[in-house]
Every structure is written in structure tokens, then in C-alpha cells.
Amino acid sequence: MMRTNAMRWVAIAGVLCLLGAACGATRSGTRASSAPSESSASLRASLVERVNSFNRAFREGDWATVTRVIAPRFQASLAQKVGQPVEKFQAFMAAQTAKMMETVTIHSYEMTVPDDDPKPLDNGLYYLKLPTTTDLSAEGERMQQTTTTFALYEDGAWSLNRIASESQEGLFKGLYPELHGVSMR
């Protein structure tokens, strides 16, 4: 019972990260060891594809897709905290998101990719900040916000991470020390 409750709360925290109300994975938490061979144009094109897929999934309520875009190390860390394999935690997080979103009305949602090129880090990671607007109602209250989604390219895929506070940024940088010195919001 205790593990299920802990798992539920960690899943809810992950869901709130996606919605921009709290913090910010799909594969294992492996580190990239060398720079990808992709050009800036192909990196950007793959990011546009990832964002378009995410926006579509969000609007359609495909919570399994939505919850699998968080950075690998972050998701692995959450799964480890509740003592579950990443795949089982992902399924649980998608189910919790679906349940939570039953009481939410999405009026509009849009994440956009700016014209900037992805910025490289020394170890083969790339990042780019994406403007994101959310307009939703929950529990009779309408919430409109503009935030930044932090896109991170690692191990051949883009993750999308909503970083809404300094504490979230610190938590994320604890898992990704390569990002120290980078403003994520």
C-alpha cells in the first residue's frame, strides 16, 4: 500500500511537470558520450517533429505519448524513487495523467519551436528553449500561462521538460550536471 501511494504521488508530480505546474523520461538514464552526427538542420527538424507529435497527443488526450517525453535521467530517477522499472512507472504515470485530466478542460495548448538552432553542450547533448502556452480549466478555475519548455537532445531523441521554478531547475541539473551555467527557464 505504501509503495502504491508513493508511486501515485511521484506520478502526479511528473504529470504536473508536463502541465507546467510543478517539475520535468522514456528510456534508461544513459549519458551521451559523443556528439551526434546530425546537422543543426536535422536536429531542428527532429525537434519540430517531436513537438508536433507532442502537441497532437496533448490535444487528443494520448497521455501515454505525453508522459514519455520527459528526460531519460529524470524519469529513471522518479521510477527508482518508487522502486519500479521505468516501463512500469511510465504506464502508471500515463494512467494517473488520464485520471487527473478527466476533470480538466483544455481550451488551448501550444508549444512552438523558435527559429534558433539547437545549442550544443560539450558532451553531445543539445538544448533549446521552447515557448509554451496553456489555457485550461480545472476545479472551476481557469488557468492561462506562458512558460518555457526545455528541449534536451540526448541519445538520439528529444525530451520536452517544463521547468517552472528555480527548485525544479536545481533538481533537473542535479541529474544533468552538464547543464550547470545554462538557464533553463
Structure description:
There is one protein chain. With 185 residues, the chain is an alpha+beta fold. It has one domain. The chain has six helices and five strands, in the order αααααβββββα. Strands 1, 2, 3, 4 and 5 form a five-stranded antiparallel sheet that branches. A hairpin with a 5-residue loop joins strand 2 and strand 3. Helix 1 runs antiparallel to helix 4 and helix 1 crosses helix 5. The chain is globular. The N and C termini lie far apart (37 Å). About 10% of the residues have low confidence.
Task: Return the average pLDDT rounded to an integer.
Answer: 83
Q: Strand content of the residues, in percent?
A: 15-25%
Number of strands: 5
Termini gap = 37 Å
The radius of gyration computed from the alpha-carbon positions, rounded to a whole number of angstroms, is 16 Å
Number of domains: 1
Envelope shape: globular
| Order of helical and strand elements | HHHHHEEEEEH
Percent of residues in helices comes to: 40-55%
Q: Low-confidence parts, pLDDT < 50 over ≥5 residues?
A: 19-36
Largest sheet: 5 strands, antiparallel
| SSE-based structural type | alpha+beta
Number of separate helices: 6
